[in-house]
Design a protein that fits this description.
globular; 25% helix; 6 helices; alpha/beta; 5-stranded mixed β-barrel
Length: 179
């Protein structure tokens, strides 16, 4: 099924999504990769504030290439999500409702997705230049010293993703492998 949703994503909208759905996201999403996740996790351990409120927000596991003239961002393809698996359950428990990446997730992440009514989306790897066309603006909001791994706020319009793990725990990768 094809769905168009607004980000931040309401709990009701997240629960309507099913593994295999094609989704077009419009609104605000955030980027964070390995180094940024490590810093956010360390901030949580110290009782410090995170760079943005996790509640109903989406993190895209991506580090862009430099923007060409006249564009807000360069190539913006997904990175392997499993590298964030150590940190994802804590962020999901704080209200993170969506993650965008590529590849499988750990059992702990799947359990946290179900526990929190969240969703894991896949973006097509190797299509970073195409995906960047859905990004209207990009602003570094934290950890500027990390370069491409800094946390960014993106405004997106019809950003194309596929639901891989839905809020009930159905995993598209497992479904495809078993058919």
């Amino acid at each position: 099924m094809e769905q168009h949703i607004q980000a931040p994503i309401s709990a009701e909208d997240a629960k309507k999504l099913r593994a295999g759905d094609y989704v077009y996201i419009t609104g605000t999403i955030y980027t964070a990769r390995d180094a940024a996740h490590k810093r956010m996790y360390e901030a949580l351990e110290k009782g410090e504030a995170l760079p943005f409120d996790m509640m109903n927000n989406v993190i895209y596991y991506m580090g862009p290439s430099p923007a060409r003239e006249g564009r807000p961002i360069g190539s913006a393809g997904p990175t392997t999500a499993s590298r964030m698996d150590k940190y994802a359950p804590a962020l999901l428990d704080l209200g993170l409702i969506g993650m965008i990446g590529k590849g499988k997730r750990s059992k702990a992440v799947k359990e946290a997705i179900v526990r929190n009514g969240a969703v894991y989306f896949a973006a097509v790897g190797g299509a970073g230049a195409l995906l960047s066309k859905s990004i209207q603006s990009s602003e570094v909001i934290a950890y500027d010293d990390l370069g491409t791994e800094a946390v960014r706020r993106l405004e997106v319009k019809d950003f194309p993703v596929i639901v891989v793990i839905d809020s009930e725990g159905t995993d598209l990768y497992d479904t495809v492998m078993n058919s």
